[in-house]
Fold these 2 entries.
Entry 1:
Amino acid sequence: MSHQDQMHRYLFENHAVRGELVNVSDTWQKIIEGHDYPQPVQQLLGELLVATSLLTATLKFDGDITVQLQGDGALNLAVINGNNRQEMRGVARTQGEIAEGSTLKEMVGNGYLVITISPEQGERYQGVVGLEGDTLAACLEDYFMRSEQLPTRLFLRTGEAEGQKGAGGILLQVLPAQDASTDDFTHLATLTETIKTEELITLPANEVLWRLYHQEEVTVYDPQDVLFKCTCSRERCGEVLRTLPQSEVDEILAEDGEIDMNCDYCGSHYVYDAIDIAAIRNDSATGSEQVH
Ligand SMILES: [Zn+2]
């Protein structure tokens, strides 16, 4: 299972329905390694990762999507961020014991799902859905119905096969502005549902698609690699620093002589001393793109 994580898009030629099949096993391991997450949290991050990868693959523009679960339960935050290049990162925060086998609702408590779509050019969009469904997939299907009015099915799977952990999933969606018959869509969803987690995380994509849809005419497009990559940088962190109250920053500088910012997603540290801070403030005062 040491293959590269990949996203495959496909189209049913005789139905107005498209699909996406993704394996994110390596990316998942990179996101959870180095953290001491309880088993159910690891699994949920895996499902969130599969979902975010499938969602970003539906973007028609350059940008990124953040899928975030928030609540008052022992798991107060689980978030995955990914962009149209399929560069994914994520983190979870707990504030209490999480028992083995806990369900989504047991972990998150009273909570909701926040989906933030940030195009590189243009307006940010945010959608919020309550955790009505019992599973993450059900909550996201609800989101698609409300926001895009497109019938969508998501199959999010995590598990273990051949002694290794894996995560993968499938998205089926009716094409916008086309009449797909409900029966066709239900039929394709029923076929898709038969996929076993083990097949999804161990078999090559073409094999999975053949097993599911060999009676259908399916066009499969060139795959896209999925990878773990944090998009943080010293510059971006500096921008965050710039938004903090100056008095607060000055206080820390006076006490510690430097400001140590660390990235929640990847753990990178960015250290700024008084001179760095002065430069950041100077940049924001004059406009960093101004030519002198
Ligand atoms: Zn980072």
Entry 2:
Amino acid sequence: MLTIRSRCWLCRQPLRLAQHGICSYCLRQLPMPPPCCPCCGLPAGDTRYPCGRCLQKTPPWQRLVFVADYVSPLSRLIKQLKFQRRPELAPLLARLLLLRWLHLRREQYLNRPEMILTVPLQKMRRWRRGYNQSELLAAPLARWLGCEYRPQALRRIRATAAQQRLTARQRKRNLRGAFRCEDNLAGRHVVLLDDVVTTGSTAAEIAALLQAQGVASLQIWCICRTL
Ligand SMILES: [Zn+2]
Ligand SMILES: [Zn+2]
């Protein structure tokens, strides 16, 4: 008997490798991102060099790696992971990110991270959900890449309003001083992982903290980047 978990999450066909979560057909059908700036991840003519926006105002990180735009079916899987208590989707999404990173690493130079950090959830939200989706993504990635995962390195030191309905400027103000870094990360090659990057204000707020610590390099990894 096939259990539900040995079927593809998208087309429900039986899987040869249950741990992949998605069949090779659906994997090929996933939307590919358009050519993007390696730094901010927004559509750009050249995928090798930072775009004009990044040259004018350099983001506080070196690279942004993502699987696809925030569109179906990935957006649906992320919503299930976050809001419908489907933590079992995390390894599948983490694997898509790993495949993307390996692909980019072949094309362009990318540091192998020494350490993965995750954006901490607000206590109440974490308690209600029962888990932090980013932690579930980070743990298998750290295992596959042979690097460290430090779930406690970043801490939220004050509650913030939900970001969804705020403008970019309001988001920035909302997050100012909301996080603290509890570890010494000087000289380390670090990845900051979040499930979705929208305006990048959360990533930027934490990245500034990490840069102030003197990290050697910083990559932002996410499953989806809204384009
Ligand atoms: Zn499938
Ligand atoms: Zn850019």
